[in-house]
Amino acid sequence: MQDPLELLDIPSLLSDEERAIQATVAAYLTDHVRPHIASWFEEGILPRELARELARELGKLGVLGMHLEGYGCAGTSALAYGLACLELEAVDSGIRSFVSVQGSLSMYSIWKYGSEEQKQEWLPRLAAGEAIGCFGLTEPDFGSNPSGMRTRAVRDGADWVLNGTKMWITNGGLADVATVWARTEEGIRGFLVPRGTPGFSTQDVKQKLSMRASVTSELVLQDVRLPESARLPLATSLRAPLTCLSEARFGIVFGAVGAARDSLQAALEYSGTRIQFDKPIAAFQLTQRKLASMTVQVSNSMLLALHLARLKEAGTLKPEQISVGKYNNVESAIAIARESRTILGANGISLEYSPLRHANNLESVLTYEGTSDIHLLSIGHALTGIASFR
């Protein structure tokens, strides 16, 4: 059985169109990205020119902002988008993050909160991969508590002047436009900062042990002057960036399944060919117990993801439900990646095999878009009505 999700016949729950979209994304990644991902991870890079080529090719496939309507976006179902994220993260979390930040943070912030002029200027280019976007919310001292952000935007005549620093920003060093969130006298507001704006600079984060095939950056704003037309007019509180994060977390729910499935597939294939004591290690009871347990876990995660997708399509998905999906599926995926590595034995530490690379990447996924602790508190708030972190 090549795909462990076939044990429960989960593919039968998808429409023909959804399966076709998933297969198209998987085929492209298999041919053009998977052969290079181990070397990119080892070198700690996502090559700039290749990243731009990748963006253009994903744009041609309709993957960028694919769940959005209009402005060159594909307008697919939430489930189709989730399945694309699954296949992207099956290759590498960094590649899925590249797409999630582009579509569910950069593009969504403009699509949801931007002016018509901003949408017309940026969304078609971002959807086509002709431009790359990023999303600047997290700061060096404020991750789980974005309401404490220190980046400020002050009115100066008809303009705004921004000062501050954002940290751990995926795509930051690549981005042609950054959605930057800042504190104003009226509250939290969003601004579009094009690359090349005086006072705006980026610095890539080096020496990462996780998300190595991904560009992670610091954004620095020093007296960055922007016109009023750069402000996202419909973003009027902290709720705006948090809503964008919910969009991105939905992709993670599916992406984590992809990393888990790929890790498990590597363990299944290896255990069938690795001979010890004159038989494949898949014949040993302890190995079969591991494989069976992981298959149940990844199947449960996939079924949860499918349920959340249907809720999203019905317009009833709640933030605490996304927290359930993000918490459960990422925790499960990292456990599966680590367990799969044990089946590979010493070979499991080699980049020839994916599980330990996935496990390293998932350490970041475990943290960003809300740590497991924060998501548990969100679930606890829904259950008790008491916000323990306020």
TrEMBL record:
InterPro entries reported for this sequence: Acyl-CoA_Oxase/DH_mid-dom (IPR006091), Acyl-CoA_Oxase/DH_mid-dom_sf (IPR046373), AcylCo_DH-like_C (IPR036250), AcylCo_DH/oxidase_C (IPR009075), AcylCoA_DH/ox_N (IPR013786), AcylCoA_DH/ox_N_sf (IPR037069), AcylCoA_DH/oxidase_NM_dom_sf (IPR009100), Glutaryl-CoA_DH_mitochondrial (IPR052033)
Q: Where is the Acyl-CoA oxidase/dehydrogenase middle domain?
A: 134-224
Q: Which residues form the Acyl-CoA dehydrogenase/oxidase N-terminal domain?
A: 15-130
| TM helices/strands, residue ranges | none
Q: Which cofactor does it need?
A: FAD
One Pfam match, given by its short name, reads Acyl-CoA_dh_N
Report which superkingdom the organism of origin falls in.
Bacteria
Can the keyword Ribosomal protein be found in this entry's annotation? no
Q: Domain Acyl-CoA dehydrogenase/oxidase C-terminal spans what residues? A: 241-383
Keywords recorded for this protein, A-Z: FAD, Flavoprotein, Oxidoreductase, Transit peptide
Similarity field: Belongs to the acyl-CoA dehydrogenase family.
Protein known as: Glutaryl-CoA dehydrogenase
What is the source species? Lentzea cavernae
